[in-house]
Amino acid sequence: MLDDLQFDVFGPLTVRRNGELLEIPRAKHRVVLAALLLHAPRTLTAEELIQQLWGGEPPLTARKTLQGYIARLRKLLGADAVVSRASGYAIAIGTERLDLDRFNTYLQKAELTTEPAERARLFRSAMEQTHGTPLAGIPSEYLQQGDGAALLERWLNATESWADAEMAVGRHADVLPRLRALVSEHPFRESAWSRLMSALYRAGRQGEALAAYQEARRLLADELGVEPGEELRAAHRRILAGPARSSADPAQTGPRAAARRPGPAEPPARPGGADAPARRGCPYTLPPRLAEFARPGIEADLIRRLREVSREGAERTAAQTLNLYGAAGVGKTTMAVRVAHAVSAAFPDGQLYVELQRGDAFREPVDVLGELLRALGVAPGAVPAEPGERVALYRGLLSHRRVLIVLDGARDEAQVRPLLPASPTCAAVVSSLEMLSTLGGTRHVRLGLLSAEESREILARIIGRERVAAEEAAARDLVRHCGRLPLAIRIVGARLLERPHWRLETLARRLEPERRRLDELAVGDLGVRDSLAVGYAALDAPERRAFRLLSLLEMASFSVRVAAAALGLPEDRTEETLERLTAQHLLEADFVKGSGVRFSYHPLVRLYARERTFDVDSMQSRHGAVQNALAAWYARPAGALVPLRATPSPGSGGCAARAQAVAAAAGPLPPGLGFTA
């Protein structure tokens, strides 16, 4: 821990050692430090830091240059300041040493408090940790538009909530200086103007409150060519009608007051009030975009489709949904996030990202709705408890706004439907293992394996083109061992990046033995084995058994008939099981002329399945599956299948002997049957 250092990200980025200002003169060094502080104590990968520094066009020497920046920060802050980890870099800082951590602590407590005086005190303490707009002067467009924009929105919302809380206990004049500064720095933020008007009115300065409305209206008309929105107009009406109401009513800026007397053409008001404001702005919760990705054709097509949705806008009759589906590790999340970043300008009212799966468990839609509502500005205490009300509020908030929703890791259509926007001006990108075929208004895009060229391109972007060009044969071997799976390629690249002294051939040799390949394909929090375990966990017991045992068949592909024999099941039940495994992308299916549908494993998936069968299934079960499958393979199509431990028919002794010999290979290690179709 850096107990002698103090870091501030609100206002200009500053570092103090024992109270003395520590200068960080280089702009790029400040960008790296700001990115690390925003995510402390989480590790940021080199790819994420490169993205913050150079966006989508990093120099060829980006990784070496980044290492130089890290070394310089360590020299300035201390050798232990920036920690190198397997997956990247992190800053070792205690929670009391960063203004952002203290701000978040007080803010979370305030948002959960309902007692007015204590709520005001906690919001006041949160704002005392800040000294102006966060990340002022940090020269990183990507950082300012990504993590910086999210922090700015959180700070603006907190400032407005602070003003509401202070006014709720009568401190109307106290909030005026900060609110005036807020509308000066953010002149088009109508929610800030409405609070300034409210504070002026409550402080007995009705004329100034009405003048503030006219100033806001002039700015919006002159600069944007629009009239004030409903929230600002409602605050204006309440001030004008003030003498006819109780002294408290005209001061309310939240939509509950507007809901009491809506005009004939007014839309339903948002829930909230002084204690639970409906905060406006541009919510932005996308994770950083991964730079090392090489599917320009698919990516460009998805970007084009989403931009078309935005241009069509209200001419559409329903929101557009894109479903990216495919096997674990093919880059669905990476593609969804990259596309969302690319079209962010087309959805200026917000881009929201939520994970639908945490570990092995899928989240319930009602819980995800709560997260989305809070991201859209609904205070925790104002989120409805009833699921139907959450859906209605969520879709109401999105109505007539241009918002992109990214739903990552969906289980099925039932989980996704309540989370989709209804407004035709919005769009959603949903990633899933299976195609969500029954979602209406959806375009389905399957992501498969990379080509060999795309695989080498990703590897070159991670470790450098010179390094790949120097060992082209080893690079081809690495791609082959990875099975052109994007996740595996990323892991290989990360491992080589960590070890600049390794030759590519060194890692290729380590990946050569199948029994240790999955052990080698892991780095930091990324692992092919862990990724495949997610799909495996979603299967029921019979499907898991089939997935495990069929991996023992050293065949390029197999039919339903052979699989049924191996599993000891009727062909119709076996076919259903195989189709389920195919839907989960744990098997691949192809139609072969003259042979019908054939099923096969991706090489890495087969290795994982074999690990599981030797951990779970008895030797007798493994021997029986292999013996029966081979007997079925050698039997004539019109002949009867040889069941488990059945006596072979006359004339089939050669086949049975071959099957018995092959079954004997299913011992304590994955068998190499040498049997191909």
Q: Low-confidence runs (pLDDT<50, min 5 residues)?
A: 244-281, 638-677
The average pLDDT value, as a whole number, equals 82
Across the major sheet, the strand order is 7-10-11-6-12
Count of alpha and pi helical runs? 30
> Rg, please?
30 Å
Largest sheet: 5 strands, parallel
Count of β-strands: 16
Helix content: 40-55%
Relative strand content: 5-15%
Termini separation: 60 Å
In quaternary terms, these chains amount to single chain
Structural class: alpha/beta
What is the global morphology? globular
In short:
With 677 residues, this protein is an alpha/beta fold. Helices cover 51% and strands 10% of the residues.
Describe the structure.
α29 (619-634) runs antiparallel to α30. The chain has a 5-stranded parallel beta sheet with strand order 7-10-11-6-12, with helices on both faces. The protein has a 3-stranded antiparallel beta sheet with strand order 1-2-3, with no helix packed on it. The radius of gyration is 30 Å and the shape is globular. Helices cover 51% and strands 10% of the residues. α17 (413-416) links the parallel β10 and β11. The chain has 30 helices and 16 strands. It has 677 residues and is α/β, with parallel strands linked by helices.
Secondary-structure blueprint of this entry?
Blueprint: E1 5-8, E2 14-17, E3 20-22, H1 27-39, H2 46-54, H3 62-77, E4 82-85, E5 88-91, H4 99-111, H5 116-128, H6 141-145, H7 147-168, H8 176-185, H9 190-202, H10 206-224, H11 230-240, H12 255-260, H13 296-312, E6 320-325, H14 332-342, E7 351-355, E8 357-358, E9 361-362, H15 365-375, H16 387-398, E10 404-410, H17 413-416, E11 427-432, E12 442-446, H18 452-463, H19 465-470, H20 472-481, H21 486-498, H22 504-511, H23 514-520, E13 522-523, E14 526-527, H24 528-537, H25 541-550, H26 560-567, H27 571-583, E15 588-592, E16 596-600, H28 603-616, H29 619-634, H30 653-664
Parallel strand pairs: 6-11, 6-12, 7-10, 10-11
Antiparallel strand pairs: 1-2, 2-3, 4-5, 8-9, 13-14, 15-16
